[in-house]
Amino acid sequence: MISTNRELLLRAEHLTKSYGARPVLKDASLEIVSGEIHALLGENGSGKSTLIKLLAGQIAPDGGYTPDNAPRVTVSGQSENLPIDPKTAERLKLGFVHQDLGLVLSSTVMETLGLGRYRTRWGRINWRAQRSYTQETLRRYGLGLSPETVVGSLSAVERAMLSIIRGIESISGEERGVLVLDEPTAYLPGDAVHQVFEVLRRIKATGSSVVFVTHRLDEVKDICDRATILRSGEVVATMDVASATTDDLITAILGTELTNLYPSEHTAVAEPVLRVTNLGGTDTRDVSFVASRGEILGLTGLVGDGFEEIIALCFGASRGEGKVEVKGKEVDQNWLRPRRAMGMGMAYIPADRATSSGLMAASAAENLTMATMRRYWRSGRMAYSEERKDAIEAMRRVGLRPPSPNLPLGSFSGGNQQKLILAKWLLTHPHVLFLHEPTNGVDVGAKKTLFDLINRAAQDGCSVVIASSEYEDLAHLCHRVIIVKNGAVSGELTGDQLTTEAITHRCLASTAAPAAS
Amino acid sequence: MARTPTGQEPAVFTATSRGGPEVTDGPSRPANTADGPLAEPKLRAHDWIALIGSRFGLIITWALMIVAFSVLLPGVFLSGSNLGYLLSSQATVLIVAIAVTIPMAAGEFDLSSSGVVVITVVTMGYLNVIQRWPLIPTVLVALAIGLVVGCVNAFFIVRIGISSLIVTLAMTSVLIGFALGLNNLTVTGISVDLVDAARSTVGGIQLVFFYALAVVVVAWYVFQHTPIGRSLYFTGAGREVARLSGVRVDAIRAGSLIVSSLLGAVAAILLTGVLGSADPNVGTSYALAPFAAAMLGSTSFAPGRFNIIGTAVATYFLATGITGLQLLGLAGWVTQVFYGMALILGVALSTYSGRRNRRKIRA
After folding, report:
1. How far is the C-alpha of A90 from the C-alpha of B26, rounded, in Å?
2. A253: closest CA among A473, A44, A438, A11?
3. 3-class DSSP assignment, residue A97
4. I need a surface site. Which of A57, A220, A292, B158 has the fewest CB within 10 A?
């Protein structure tokens, strides 16, 4: 039930959409009350983004309806049939922030916030008024940026916050609006998300509402008031988040219970495979640690503390100093290049799939054999049939079936892309596997598969090093977690001490606590 | 051996993923359908037409063009002498087109090819005719020029990190300037050996065409059947991904630029043989045509990728159009207009088909 002081702000109903013969959305409806943060949940393919695209007028709903059940959106009493154009969306106070944020990197913060609504005087932009408006707006949302800062120099978090502020500012004047966020936190590290949430809370406080699409259920518990869950194109539930457990949400999303998201632990062999000595780069210094055969080692900290740089340095993806030893072979970090690191038995999967780890336009098979293509170079030509066979085999192994090696990587879902990229590197049979935020932008089902695969690689003798700010995942998956603070190792958690709370505590603690042993 | 992930594996194959920047431009694919989570998209009749159209559209248009000109110009267009002329006259353009396709595949533009052609041609005339050098040393110097230009380009583009468009555009100006400084008049009397080697005919076709054909075959083989070809594509499609996967991207980029300039020099040597003279004004034919061919070629055979067969077919496709129009009585100006339009159209087509393909996959 909607409480008395909260009125219905948005109602979308009879949303139906099919592609060809396949229905993607079946008579879905959505209700948003004022001053709430409303989660829109569902697996990839459940119809979330179709629903949002319908709301945004990017796609048209199916025809063939009667006037009674016309697809329609009503905001603050004004009703419009879908599809609506951008002008109408603006009039309805309906705003959208897409995942790519839509920022112009070369423009300044002031220009970004002023886009489309410059304060003019006699036809020319009144930069003074524009400037004070920008400062006032930034202050209102608690963002300490200078109006002249260039967007390209902002961090990922700041960009996300800026885009959200622009979104809400462009729709909310006197009246309250609804801002739809399509996975704004997808590429943000765990602790940075809280800064974005602060902005959302301030929006909520004004009586406007936020629709929030995400895969991260802990975020839902953290910030959302209600959640609408889609499954196979149908709205299966709308629930109050406060009274639901994470398991309730998972059950509603999958339709069945997901048992054991995390694989059971195995014991690592005390045989050092990777030994890092006095490693340093732009954000880190004097980092030393050892990883054993079969061990899953976590590296974590707060963003900016440099934990993710350590694995890039180990692989030679960036330049620094120190020594790296794999299976008894010690080399200078200076000497390392990705190619040489691969020769020593290292594998590295960066967090950003689209720009660093996968070629979206190339086929699945080409991606899979990218690191191992020389194997297929036999007597003067590429052995294509063999490559295809291996690609199919690798796809089977990571649970993609039926395996279609000819499809471009970009046509797979985020989770399946990540599985393919993991498979690509497992084909190199690495001694050490470095992973940076391995479950970024991956839904909960695919996440389980990835964890299983990582665990299995470790069981097979690989030593896995995960740099991540997903504290809960690290606590469950790793044998040992190293906390990095200000670019240096500040402590280590293992065994019974290794809990989500302990990691969070250690990361947030202002001074490095001495490592308990 | 492979343990199957538990049955909870969700069916995921959709544009709603957070896979990358493209996710916003297509409708999502419904999952959990009867034909499984990851079925290859089933092609219907009009999809097949679209597929054939995008793969072989260039060849089909070419065939239609030939039929049209044969009807309009009975007995002239399809005559043996015209075909022989067509194949021979475009052979050096074909070599340069292949040359520029190589760095383009690796993500770099080499605009300096016309400059390389001009400086090499002028040097050939200067050394072989004016200075009375024998043929072999002249050719070696010509090849060395190509090598040096390629290395200088590679140094500034790969080592210093300047945009290839800027470096090679400036290089063109430098080379043409030097060429005019060396000799700005047409020199006749090139070594008979070279003229014979280039101009002797087999079945009405000059030998130079067969040299070009050999270049095409070798380049095609490298692109299609060697790890180098794969690495070229990876470097062009995503340099950082390629680098982190152990591809020597800098070596690939530098190598492609050097090979491009070298092939430019080879084309120029053959050109002096074909013409029997060294004309400092030959550059204009090589400024735009190779790029128009490479761009247009990338829309066919392997749409979205620079490919050798595409470049080769597009070179002759463009030449056919120009020859036909000239035989119909349109004057020399048509060449410039045609190549310019073909370049714009080629890029427009590849952009459009790229967008369409992406949508097709996601729809």
Report:
1. 23
2. A44
3. strand
4. A292
Residue of A nearest to B237 (CA): A359
Q: Which two tokens stand for residue A96?
A: 């959208």
Alpha carbon separation from A301 to A314, A509, B287 (Å, rounded): 18, 10, 55
Residue of B17, B51, B306 to mutate, testing the A interface (most A Cβ within 10 Å of its Cβ): B17
The CA distance from A416 to B61, in Å, is 39
CB of A150 closer than 8 Å to CB of A108 = yes
DSSP A344: T
Residue A390 distance to chain B (closest CA, Å): 14
Biggest distance spanned by C-alpha atoms of chain A: 78
Helix (H, G, I), strand (E, B) or coil at A337: coil
Nearest CA distance, B112 vs chain A (angstrom): 29
Backbone angles phi, psi at A167, to 5 degrees: -60, -45
- Of the candidates B111, B106, B250, the one whose C-alpha atom is nearest the C-alpha of residue B167 is B111
Domains of chain A in start order, with CATH, are: 8-93+171-254 (3.40.50.300), 100-154 (no CATH), 260-345+430-517 (3.40.50.300), 359-429 (no CATH)
Sequential pLDDT tens for chain A (517 residues): 444 457 888 898 888 888 766 778 888 999 999 889 999 988 776 888 788 888 888 888 887 777 777 888 888 778 888 888 878 888 888 888 887 787 888 888 888 887 556 666 677 777 788 888 888 888 888 788 888 888 888 887 888 888 888 888 877 666 788 999 888 776 676 667 788 888 888 888 888 899 988 877 888 888 899 999 988 888 988 989 888 888 888 888 877 766 667 777 767 677 899 999 999 998 899 999 999 999 999 999 887 788 989 999 999 999 999 999 999 999 999 999 999 999 999 999 998 888 899 999 899 999 999 999 988 998 888 899 999 999 999 999 888 866 789 888 988 888 889 999 999 999 999 999 999 999 887 888 888 899 999 999 999 989 999 999 888 889 989 999 999 988 899 999 988 888 888 888 888 764 444 444 3
CB B29 within 8 A of CB A44: no
pTM attached to this predicted model? 0.75
Give the residues across from A150 on adjacent strands: A108
Strands A432-436 and A346-349: parallel
**What is the distance in angstroms between the Cα of A3 and the nearest Cα belonging to chain B?**
33
d(CA B236, CA B104) in angstroms, rounded, equals 7
3-class secondary-structure state, position B175? helix
CB contact under 8 A, B27 and A24: yes
Three-state DSSP state, B102: helix
Interatomic CA distance for residues B238 and B80, integer angstroms:
46
How big is the A-B interface in CB pairs under 8 Å?
211
State the best of A59, A101, A411 to mutate against chain B, taking most chain B CBs within 10 Å: A411
CA distance readout (Å), A340 to A282, A343, B222, B343? 21, 5, 25, 41
Reduced to 3 DSSP states, what percent helix, strand and coil does chain A have, rounded to the nearest 5? 35, 25, 35
Residue A187: list chain B partners with CB under 8 A. 18
> How many C-beta atoms lie closer than 10 Å to residue B352's C-beta?
11
Q: Which of B2, B10, B230 sits opposite A397 (nearest CB)?
A: B2
Q: How far apart (Å, rounded) are the C-alpha atoms in residues B184 and B186?
A: 7
* B354: nearest CA partner in chain A: A361
Chain A contact for B81 (CB, 8 A cutoff): no
Q: Can you read off the two tokens belonging to residue A305?
A: 């503390």
